[in-house]
Amino acid sequence: MYEKDPKSTASRRSVTIPETILPEIKIHLDEFTGKEPDALLFLGPRGGAIRRNNFNRIWKRALRKAGTKDVHFHDLRHTGNTLAASTGASLRELMARMGHSSTRAALIYQHATAERDKEIAAAVSAKIQAARKPVGAPKPVRKTAKNRVKKPASERSDRD
Fold this sequence. Notes:
The protein is an all-alpha fold. The protein is 44% helix and 0% strand.
């Protein structure tokens, strides 16, 4: 890998990291990076920048060790944005996290999931249930000539 300027001004940003993964990040920083503020996050076998062919070899070894395969490093970006979208983040918020300057680019990284589809269906179901009248509730009676009961003359008012 090599250093270069970001593709757009939106790419240069600060992103809040989920608190639950901070311990793993701290371990990585302590064990595998230098102490300088501008130190590289991932180092090659000799302590320099990782080259693409070295990274692929290291990545594939890590996948085997984790018991998985067919995951590209860039897939982590898609996964992170799909998880962020599932929290209800707006498109603008997702664009800011991902460093996208266009909605088209942001939408490429969003994926529908079966789990989220079930959550949406459950939320729609809850809205329907809330709007429904309870089953067995008496139906309002429409006043028609057939069901109108005539009151005795002594009980009638001028409006009857």
